[in-house]
Amino acid sequence: MIPSEVKGVMVGVITSAIVLAAAFTGGTVYRSQYITSKQPASKPLSPENLAAKGRGFFFQSCAHCHGQDADGGEDAPSLLKLQISGAHIALVVQSGIKDEMPSFAKKYNEQDVSAIIAYLKTLH
Ligand code: HEC
Question: Whose CA is nearest to atom 8 of ligand 1?
């Protein structure tokens, strides 16, 4: 027979262990939700956001030559049905084309260029 005082202590210990465990798990869940709702700005952009950003760059830097709809301007070809790969487009944008198209290497970093490419890919 276990004395009733010992039983009481055991029940108390078990109860507080459960309460502690619940508080601990609850706290963790709460904290992770808090972190999720405060996404850091460095999170990679979704494809839609990337293309929207690229659209801005396109109108700023490319549209006056390649046309507002990218379907070619007076002196520059259409970019709608490009046969070249994304990597090749990036290369053209970064290096430019001698006597034809300026280099954008100083103006746009790698992510900016991939944003422009993402935008061009939404156009076809
Ligand atoms: C000063 C006018 C001008 C601007 C600004 C310009 N381009 Fe061009 N781009 C050209 C010309 C002209 C060609 C064609 C050169 C040739 O075929 O020899 C060309 C070619 C290209 C090509 C290669 C097309 C192919 O079929 O190989 C790509 C891709 C391109 N441009 C993308 C861009 C992007 C993206 C921008 C903006 C960041 C841009 N261009 C800004 C004039 C321009």
Answer: 101
